[in-house]
């Protein structure tokens, strides 16, 4: 399916340590995809205004739900989708900061973007499992089994081939952890 911007994939894999800038519409959906501790939140806070970020971790914290509680994923997805709807209806940018590695996690926000006739952009943060595992071990606020990270990675790899079919208009791939330090994202009218 060709999206509003047409199917576009941009990868930085061959250009590590080179600055890259991307201009995205000021009213669109941005889905950050990557394993836990890949650097998605860091990227979101560096590149986007705080009010544009819809963070499932922040939603969990606001509701007093443990990061380890996997039983509330449907409810979190519904809350995040409603926050995306509110942002887009208000004419703003909505950046979903979550792993988003499974199609069912992306389905709601993508449907909202289609209904609002705004482009959907996926930023794939391809930080490897070993780096994510090391970072997870350094974070006292969360515990994830390595198998969870490995499953997230497998889901992420599988997702790369289905994103445009799901309705994503543009895919930006940040292949390594160092790519996060070399990307700038600006919004344009």
Describe what this molecule looks like in 3D.
This protein is α/β, with parallel strands linked by helices and 189 residues long. The protein has a single domain (8-188), classed as Rossmann fold, CATH 3.40.50. The chain has helices at residues 40-47, 56-63, 73-89, 103-116, 129-137, 146-159, 163-166, and strands spanning 8-11, 20-25, 29-33, 53-55, 94-97, 120-125, 170-174, 183-188. Strands 1-7-6-3-5-4 form a six-stranded parallel β-sheet, with helices on both faces. Mean pLDDT is 86; it is low at 1-17.
Give the tags.
Rossmann fold; alpha/beta; two-stranded parallel sheet; disordered N terminus; 189 residues; single chain; globular
